[in-house]
Design a protein that fits this description.
heterodimer, A: Ubiquitin-like (UB roll), 5 helices, 5 strands, globular, B: alpha+beta, Uridine Diphospho-n-acetylenolpyruvylglucosamine Reductase, domain 3, Enolase-like, domain 1, five-stranded antiparallel sheet, five-stranded mixed sheet
Chain lengths: ~170, ~280
């Protein structure tokens, strides 16, 4: 019999209620459950991705009360009572959000793994500044790593989204 | 509450350093006490010549605060920490209490007159920042004590400062960082505070560099000599971010650049500070 490498720890579960994309979710979860695990496993919203799991890549970015956060670097219990927006919440009534549409139109994605996080970082930026310069976009998405596009089309997509959202 | 839970418990502030450490099993406290649900711990206010920042004030709140711009060095630091997502969560009190040798706040704040307000089961006390950080990941806090407020004296007119950190990319810790606060009378440097980060177990003051500036006329020769003097305070470890010699050279360059920005700000020029990426 091989020795067991890890002790199995059972933790007392805690009730957590989070409003995700306008819908309330209540689950009993271990206090160590990360927010991204709550979204993917408890809510079955798998659009939020886990990339590095070390607070680097930003693939897990969601909005908490309108602000971009890395959902791998928060516990689900910490989001109790808050409002979370994931990529699934961008589309309304079967119509893509202008940010989603612009990422398609400007070829701002290739493999798509980083895209949900990038679109939510772009969402915070555009809600504060609808006409960002390239420098401002660079700063706003510095916490989102993309390994395919080279970023230039992402800058163009975010600027296009800003223009489409203001109707300019 | 932490008094009851004992030493196996740890406070959780913004979590942007602690949660990654927990995942790596570098820390494994039995209990975490989340400070995020305590109201009234996030604020920036001015009182009797100082800025007072609540311990749970997020980096992003400091970055966007008009009041915090009264001390440009503070704004530089807040606006350049990691990335937007981390700045939305991470807190000034958490950064100081974590005392990561590569953290930004301790380096920025020891170049200023900073006092840490603490509260524990034994009561409240204030600790000058230079006595607060003891060693890497070690502060003067007792296990049942926390930071409530960070008090920073607003430098006088004719004083200017800057904080610069050099990073390979936004989300990573800096390779090295430098904070400079100068007080000028005309072209003469009356006083200088110069601090270095990531090149020792704690942030350090570069006293040789400070001495090289005090009482001198600021010009390229004296600034370059002071920057070169900062080398003596750096005791960096070689790692994936660079060799020890590379980091010493980087410190010289950062201090020289920060002195030049600080001097222009001391003369009243508005200058945007920027963290530098590789």
């Amino acid at each position: 019999m091989p020795e067991r490498a890890f002790e199995t720890v059972t933790m007392e579960k805690i009730a957590v209620g989070i409003k995700v994309n306008g819908k309330s979710y209540s689950h009993q979860v271990e206090p160590r459950m990360l927010l991204v695990e709550f979204l993917r496993e408890a809510c079955d919203l798998t659009g939020t991705h886990v990339g590095c799991d070390t607070t680097y890549c930003g693939a897990c970015t969601v909005l908490m009360n309108g602000l971009a956060v890395k959902s791998c670097t928060m516990f689900a219990v910490q989001a109790d009572g808050s409002e979370i927006t994931t990529v699934e919440g961008l589309e309304k009534d079967g119509k893509l959000h202008p940010i989603q549409k612009a990422f398609g139109d400007a070829y701002g994605l290739q493999c798509g793994y980083c895209t949900p996080g990038l679109m939510l970082s772009a969402h915070q930026l555009l809600s504060e500044n609808p006409e960002p310069s390239e420098k401002e976009i660079r700063k706003a998405i510095a916490g989102n790593t993309c390994r395919c596009t080279g970023y230039m089309n992402i800058f163009k997509a975010i600027q296009l989204a800003g223009r489409n959202m203001t109707g300019a | 509450m932490l008094g009851q839970l004992g030493e196996a418990a740890k406070f959780l502030a913004g979590g942007q350093s602690l949660i990654p450490l927990l995942k790596l099993r570098f820390a494994s406290p039995e209990h975490l006490v989340d400070l995020n649900f305590i109201s009234g711990t996030s604020f920036i206010k001015e009182a009797s010549g100082s800025l007072r920042l609540g311990a749970m004030t997020r980096h992003a709140e400091i970055e966007h605060s008009a009041l915090a711009r009264k001390i440009p060095l503070l704004h530089d630091c807040a606006a350049g920490i990691a990335d937007v997502q981390v700045r939305n969560r991470g807190t000034i009190g958490g950064s100081l209490a974590e005392a990561d040798p590569s953290g930004d706040w301790a380096t920025a704040l020891i170049a200023l007159d900073t006092t840490v307000h603490c509260l524990g089961t034994a009561g409240a006390r204030t600790i000058p920042l230079k006595d607060f950080v003891k060693d890497a990941y070690t502060t003067a806090l007792a296990h049942d004590e926390l930071v409530t407020e960070v008090e920073v004296k607003i430098p006088a007119q004719g004083s200017g400062g800057a904080y610069l950190a050099f990073k390979r990319s936004a989300p990573v810790y800096p390779t090295a960082s430098a904070a400079v606060q100068l007080t000028l009378a005309g072209d003469v440097c009356q006083d200088a505070a110069i601090a270095l980060g990531c090149v020792g177990l704690t942030a350090v003051r570069a006293t040789e560099a400070e001495t090289a500036l005090r009482g001198r006329i600021l010009n390229d020769t004296t600034i370059d000599a002071a920057a070169e003097g900062a080398r003596a305070a750096a005791d960096p470890q070689p790692d994936m971010r660079g060799s020890a010699e590379y980091k010493r050279q980087l410190v010289v360059a950062l201090v020289g650049r920060a002195i030049r920005i600080a001097a222009r700000r001391a003369r009243g020029e508005e200058m945007e500070g920027a963290h530098l990426y590789a």
